Amino acid sequence: GPGALVHSATCNQAKIPNFILHPTHDGVDKGGSRLAAEIRSIVSQPKNKSLHQISIVGNSMGGLYARYALGLLFDKATGLVAGMEPVCFISTASPHLG
Predict the structure, then answer these.
(1) Rounded to an integer, what distance in angstroms lies between the CA atom of residue 57 and that of residue 52?
(2) Which of 14, 34, 47, 78 is most buried, by the most CB atoms less than 10 A from its CB?
(3) What angle do CA 87, 2, 9 make, to 5 degrees?
(4) How far apart are CA 56 and CA 85, in angstroms?
(5) Residues 55, 90 contacting (CB under 8 angstroms)
(6) pTM, to two decimals
(7) What are the CA-CA distances from residue 16 to residues 4, 29, 35, 61, 93 (Å)?
(8) What confidence tens digit (pLDDT) does each residue in 43-69 have?
(9) What digits encode the pLDDT tens for the residues 17-44?
């Protein structure tokens, strides 16, 4: 299996160029939930079973989505994120305080 996997999330990209119905217009909770679902899908694939650590990077609104997704993926009982050991969360230009 892979030693590392770099994945660029696609769940919050518009399927067609439409700025009125863009998926980012429905809020951080919806976008973060979509991201969490995409991460679960990626890590559950048989080819990715050897992965045991996770780091997440998000820019701007992506950093807000990533923080929300991490909250959904975090297991308090084990300290794992999507079944993996969390290593880094990096966000750049993300308005965490508004």
Answers:
(1) 17
(2) 34
(3) 65
(4) 12
(5) yes
(6) 0.90
(7) 31, 22, 19, 20, 26
(8) 999 999 999 999 999 999 999 999 999
(9) 766 677 788 999 999 999 999 999 999 9
